Amino acid sequence: MLHMLPMMLRGALVTGEVTAGAIVVASVAASCAVAMRLSTLAALDWPARVYIELFRGTSALIQLFWAFYALPLVLPFRPSPIITAIVVLGLNGGAYGAEILRGALLSVPRGQHDAATALNFSATTKVFRVVLPQAWPLLLPPMANLFIDMLKNSALAGLVQVTDITFNAQILQESTLRNAEVYGLALVIYFIMALVLAGFMRLLERRMKFPVGARI
Amino acid sequence: MNHKASIEFANIHKSYQRTVVLENLNLTVAPGEHVVIIGPSGSGKSTILRLLMTLEKPDSGEILIEGESVWHTTRDGRNVDASPAHIRRMRGKVGMVFQHFNLFPHLRVLQNITEAPIRVMGMPRSQAVRRATDLLDRVGLADKAEAWPAELSGGQKQRVAIARALALQPRIMLFDEITSALDPEIAGQVLQLVLDLAKQTEMTMLFVTHQMRFARQIADRVLFFDRGRIIENGTPEQVLDHPQQPRTREFLNNVFQAS
Ligand SMILES: Nc1ncnc2c1ncn2[C@@H]1O[C@H](COP(=O)(O)OP(=O)(O)OP(=O)(O)O)[C@@H](O)[C@H]1O
Ligand SMILES: [Mg+2]
Questions:
Q1: Collapsing DSSP states into helix, strand and coil, what is residue B80?
Q2: Distance CA A64, CA A70 (A)
Q3: Which CATH number is B33-60+92-258 given?
Q4: What is the ipTM of this complex?
Q5: Would you call B92 an interface residue with chain A, using a CB distance cutoff of 8 Å?
Q6: β-strand B204-208 against B19-29: which pairing, if any?
Q7: If exposure means fewest CB atoms within 10 Å of the residue's CB, which of A172, B37, B97, B249 is most exposed?
Q8: Ligand 1 center to B208 CA (angstroms)
């Protein structure tokens, strides 16, 4: 089993890259989508809705296949498999992230907005000093779930030529035919990576100093 | 300056969806005047204060603060919608204390007070801290500067909220049922603080309250409000002791029976 390790670890590195990249894309996409959804302009609201419903309502695997096999036909260039995977999985995660973020932002009570306005805060100060700090603790636990889901979903990238854990596991399985060891090792590596991600998110949560949940 | 009214509502209309809250409201408040608004639940008392604080926008009519329209300016002789900068400048003249305190739970007591002076007025942190410390001292909470709002009692929270509103030195202060969420004894202490404050400043003050004793002590003028209209307007003696309208008498009887 030891001789499988280097290849599996190389796969783990790629899985890490895909997941990290997708999380970044998802965070940006979710933030933009929520900013658009919460704007008072219908012209911004509806494209964001379409994005969210489209990505939530279709299978991530089919999205990936479509982006990998169909999209290059209309694009002037062919993005690398890993970029395709990062963007598609990121946009997919972002659609879920947007709803989580929107829920967290909307759960900041109206009185907090009133107080910020009464103190004559600018829109930016209000968002960054009043709304986001209070939405943050509500955001982190569901975001941790989403990011771990995204780590596991990144296995789909292995089906479009990305040499991640899943892809390498399949290669090893075909050459060694040792199903139990190969997939067992893959499980363990995914599990450890999820553990690290969850630990990181919990660290962020622990950085919240103020008494969360106290309604003032 | 003093010849101008501090606050003027001219033909204000305000409705929410299909409920008409204020209809053709006219109201003038003189500089430094202390006006108490009383009236049944849902009559539109909070709406008046929220309009003044620019938390709500009137459907039509003008709100003037120190003679200047809040929502409109004149450009090329025409009345046009005011810029956000103009609205912010007008908003800066007004401060408000809320029934449910609305302290920022993620900021310590001192920061709750320094945040606006630093970020809105651009005051240096050291000066903002000095001012906040003075204000905390004034509301009797000098020792709570580093506490979280969640660690305070209701009365203490409301004192912090008062200090927070004062930190911006508004010319007009609005108090919307600031003791309704407190037990009577604590409420009395907070109201005493406000009475002392009112004596020390020249701010124009508007109060919505159900505390008739407090109204009598603080008010230059009492307005009785019913269904979005001022139906009685006079000194505390006139309105509270010798109401002219049957509706006012009925309301006051109910309030006194309840207390
Ligand atoms: N955001 C809102 N959306 C819809 N209706 C509202 C809103 N705010 C207030 N109203 C309605 O407007 C009317 C006046 O409300 P307002 O809060 O001004 O009354 P109030 O006199 O302060 O009452 P209370 O003594 O209960 O605080 C009520 O009928 C209320 O239901
Ligand atoms: Mg009210």
A1: strand
A2: 10
A3: 3.40.50.300
A4: 0.93
A5: yes
A6: unpaired
A7: B249
A8: 13
Q: Which residues pair with B22 in a beta bridge?
A: B14
CATH code that applies to domain A2-208: 1.10.3720.10
pTM: 0.88
Task: Sketch the domain layout of chain A as residue ranges.
Answer: 2-208
Hey, which of B43, B207, B210, B255 would you mutate to test ligand 1's pocket, going by the most ligand atoms within 8 Å of its Cβ? B43
Torsion B141-B147-B149-B154 (CA) sign: negative
**Digit-coded pLDDT (tens) for B46-58:** 999 999 999 999 9
Q: A30 by DSSP, 3-state: which?
A: helix
| B38 vs B18 pLDDT, higher one | B38
Task: Determine the Cα–Cα distance for residues A18 and B244; give it in Å rounded to an integer.
Answer: 77
Residue that the structure tokens 């008072």 belong to = A40
pLDDT at A207: 80
When scoring A119, A128, A132, A207 by the number of chain B Cβ atoms within 10 A, the one with the most, hence best to mutate, is A119
Chain A hits for B92, CB-CB cut-off 8 Å, are 120
Relative orientation angle of helices B109-119 and B154-166, to the nearest 10 degrees: 20
